[in-house]
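User: Is it possible to get a 3D structure for a protein together with its bound compound? The compound here is pyridoxal-5'-phosphate. I've pasted both below.
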Amino acid sequence: MGLSRVIPSRRTENIRYAVRDVVVLAQEVARTGKEMLYLNIGDPNVYDFQLPEVIMGPTIEAMRRNHGGYSPSSGIPEAVAAIHGDAVRRGIENIQDVFVTTGASEAIEICLTALLNPGDNVLTPAPGYPLYTAVLAKLEAEENSYFLDEDRGWQPDVADMASKINPRTKAIVLINPNNPTGSVCSEDTLREVIALAKAHGLVIFADEIYDRLVLDGERHISIASLDSEVPFVTFNGLSKCYIGPGVRIGWGVASGPRELMADYIEAINRILRSRLCANHPFQYAIRPCLEGDHGHLPPVLEKLTTRRDITVEKLNANGISCVAPKGAFYAFARLEGVRDDRHWASELIRQTGVVVVPGSGFGQRPQTAHFRVVFLPEPEKLHAAYDKITAFHQAYRNP
Ligand code: PLP
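Assistant: Yes, that's possible. Here is the predicted structure of the complex:
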């Protein structure tokens, strides 16, 4: 047949990841010599946050002890036991399985893959983290978005969730604290979501990767701790709360009645075995992280609180409004007088060098426009960026 063009698969056509997609334009603008201010990267190590010793020490030691081979597919026993213990301390009962993965991302991908057939759908938050959209597209499953309510501090709209359930709905994804809004779910909301899952036989995927990055003394509740009858998988890892996104260590905790979950857990484990294991040396950091004193956290939370306050103060003026985030390191600000936030964000990058991600990349109610900022940069940089954003927005609305 001879040589021919390599045709990518159909399932890749709808894969988008807005967070990295803006980088292409930003790189183009940076090449022109413009000074850039990056408020788009959810990576603390890019800013003034350090990989903590509690990760480095045990990992280097593990490498010296020659732990560079494969590990068991679910992870080394001491890490699995530490994750199990941490889940029990959070109040999660009926734990059926624990597995260590290459970031929470891999746990999410494996758990969706083990559950869904083409044409099935999953309730995902809008706004929410675009990995879910990308994985669902790859699996030829449908994203079934439910809205978060901006005027209720971005709490999930459970009535909207309920109205969207259909016979092909298999699961609910809850991101708490949420990316991109920084909202933290109330206990009432969590209980309503559980009631819905119970009534319709749905699995709950609880993405709690920001659970220790909660501000103002707010309490984070693991949804799986509120019920032992619904099947849950809770995702977490070292990326955010332990300042190690490049470490690529995450995990899943499956909890719920054994008889409901046995086949599903076996399917998850078939995939886990086929991809061998997660990064072996870094798994030795899991137990020290989870069982240690978390001494790296207070300074992190202090910085985040100051930077969140600057964000809320400066992004609530002149046609921009922003619900105060209670957790994580993101704010999702609303734009008045803008129809297409992709165009707005592209122009912002071109004209000011400030890089943010347009709201449409995360999902949002129709006829609204937003942008996400990462408030990890130092205060001076945030002030400079927000001044540029507000001036740009004025000019954009009144050309
Ligand atoms: N889940 C959410 C809500 C996230 O925001 C992110 C990263 O930004 C991830 C999962 C990915 O986590 P990991 O780095 O552990 O793969």
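DSSP finds twelve helices and 14 strands in the chain. The first strand starts at residue 37 and ends at 38.
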